[in-house]
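quick one, 151 residues, struct below
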Amino acid sequence: MSNPDVARMTPAQWLFEYHALQAKEKQTSDLVVEVFKQSGVVARKLLISLLGLDIGPPDENGERVVIPLSMLAGNPEMMAKVHETLQQEQAVAETTTDAEFDALSAKLAKGDVADLDPVLFGDMKPISKDYVHSEEYRQALEALGVRVRDK
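---
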């Protein structure tokens, strides 16, 4: 033993050292067990999502109810209920569409914003030269982060 203090340790000190090592080992094993449990939960949720088994109505926690694949594939009543729910969701989505919003979105997608210039850029009134050279205009530009050069 390289440390001379170790040779002089009493049985009570060895017991405390042993207890500390046991506590550390238990903490490590608890962490490993928790990691494996959580990875199992994540793998289960991933598999359920990949197979599309979470199509049931949401429960009180907001999570979708999982329907076993054997019930889903072999039960026409269940499929009819799922189909009915999907049709209701589509009907709600169709009633919330707005023709004006769709037309505006199409114009924006094409880049046609000529009639929106006042909306996007504000009321573009002509600016006089006196205002451009005024201190108020200079302060407004500096407030926006523009460095104004002296003449």
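Residues 4-112 form one domain.
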